[in-house]
Amino acid sequence: MTLLEIAQIYTDMVLLDDHIPENEHTAKEEVGILRSKYHQLFMDKLNEEGIDYYDRLDAMNKAFDIIRSPNNSFKPTRPQAGCAA
Questions:
Q1: Rounded to an integer, what distance in angstroms lies between the CA atom of residue 61 and that of residue 63?
Q2: Residue from 43, 1, 41, 38 nearest 17 by CA
Q3: CB-based contacts of 50: which residues, under 8 Å, 6+ apart?
Q4: In sequence order, what DSSP letters do the residues of 24-73 get, joined into one string?
Q5: Could you tell me the pTM of the whole model?
Q6: Domains of the chain by residue range
Q7: Is 64 in contact with 8 (CB distance < 8 Å)?
Q8: What confidence tens digit (pLDDT) does each residue in 17-39 have?
Q9: Which residue has better confidence, 41 or 79?
């Protein structure tokens, strides 16, 4: 999966979780599990693509930034392996 695809799924899960009523415990739990899974996948993909983040909150913000950016992309913050700096 691409960084954009993972970011889209993750941000969808975050927004969905905000709209599930508090009394829907099973739905909130299931969405929370998926949200956590895609958050980890997103952070792993950020690392793979050379994009730094400070913590989980910063990674979440980067996911929303990618989705909102005009070309749905984010530039690496460190050189890629095998690339000239």
A1: 5
A2: 38
A3: 76, 77, 78, 79, 80
A4: -HHHHHHHHHHHHHHHHHHHHHHHHTT---SSHHHHHHHHHHHHHSTTS-
A5: 0.81
A6: 3-68
A7: no
A8: 999 999 999 999 999 999 999 99
A9: 41
